[in-house]
Amino acid sequence: MRMDADEFERLVIDELDLLPDDMVDGLDNVVFVVEDRPEDGSLGLLGLYDGLALTERDRYGMGDLPDRIIVYREPHLVRCATEDELRDEVHTTLVHEIGHFYGIDDDRLHELGWA
Which of 6, 24, 11 lies closest to 95 in space, CA to CA? Predict the structure, then answer.
């Protein structure tokens, strides 16, 4: 599947807007970033939570750099054949990475169907 960076970013924003308010309202000091690929160039990683989970925060707040939720464009495009599949995969990636913000580990996310 092919989609340029601007189109993909718009799709990610659309999917983020569709998430339940109670899921995104609790996000504090988090930015969403779209990148082409992970730093290692691999195509296996769809997203990454780069930050300190809410459950691990002690003295966190003013002056701290924001946590990042990164969505990787090229791995999504390689995995998906249609735009509907792409939207579903981006949605799952967003929920998965937001889950990490809330302190949910990969095993539990897998049990819940978000891995």
Answer: 24
Whether residue 77 has pLDDT greater than 90: yes
What predicted TM-score, i.e. pTM, was given to this entire model?
0.91
Distances (CA, A) of 53 to 75, 87, 99, 110: 24, 26, 9, 18
**Using one digit for the tens of pLDDT, what is the confidence trace for 97-115?**
999 999 999 899 889 887 7
Burial 11-48 (b: 16+ CB within 10 A, else e): bbeebbeeeeeeeeeebeebebebeeebeeeeeeebbb
Nearby residues of 106 by Cβ (< 8 Å), 6 or more positions away: 115
